[in-house]
Amino acid sequence: MSRATKRKHVQKEMLTAEWNGPIDDQRIVRIVAGRGNNLHEVFSVEDNETFLVSMPAKFRRNVWVKRNDYVVIEPIAEGDKVRGEIVRVLTKDDMKLMKQKGWKKDDNCDIEANTNRPVVTTISDLSCTDTDTDHDDPSEDTDYSS
């Protein structure tokens, strides 16, 4: 089977296969980073921990995942560092299903702030409700009578 045909079949399987949530010991995790050699670091909300999972051979060069994508994994019993294998990459439709069934909460507080961007404060962010009257006005201390 050619590479293009294989990619077509894998993507078709991913998009048309009926998915009704994780089964048995499968878990839904969020991709944190790619670590190379088809390994991905993931974050499990259930266990509140980060660990490595592997991308199986059928997905390699056919399906791409990026940071903050959600995937379904199956645990590997003998795994010490690599503790799971990706079974399914969740699509936008799968994410809608997760929200409807209550499997995923909107918890954007876990997402780390991007430190590569400067923090910009707008005028609307500044509060004009400074009602502290204990401080002296510097213009009152200056004597211009001389």
Descriptive labels:
about 150 residues; alpha+beta; 3 helices; 5 strands; globular
Q: How would you explain this protein's 3D organization?
A:
- The chain has 146 residues and is α+β, with helices and mostly antiparallel strands.
- The protein contains three helices and five strands; from the N terminus they run αβββββαα.
- Strands 1-2-3-5-4 form a five-stranded mixed beta barrel.
- A hairpin with a 4-residue loop joins strand 2 and strand 3.
- The protein starts with a helix and ends in a 5-residue tail after the last helix.
Kindly estimate the percentage of residues that lie in beta strands according to DSSP: 15-25%
Oligomer: single chain
Helix/strand-derived category reads alpha+beta
Number of helices: 3
Low-confidence stretches: none
Quick take:
By secondary structure, the protein is of the alpha+beta class. The protein has helices at 3-16, 92-101, 138-141; strands at residues 27-36, 39-44, 49-54, 70-75, 82-89.
Structural topology:
Blueprint: H1 3-16, E1 27-36, E2 39-44, E3 49-54, E4 70-75, E5 82-89, H2 92-101, H3 138-141
Parallel strand pairs: 3-5
Antiparallel strand pairs: 1-2, 1-4, 2-3, 4-5
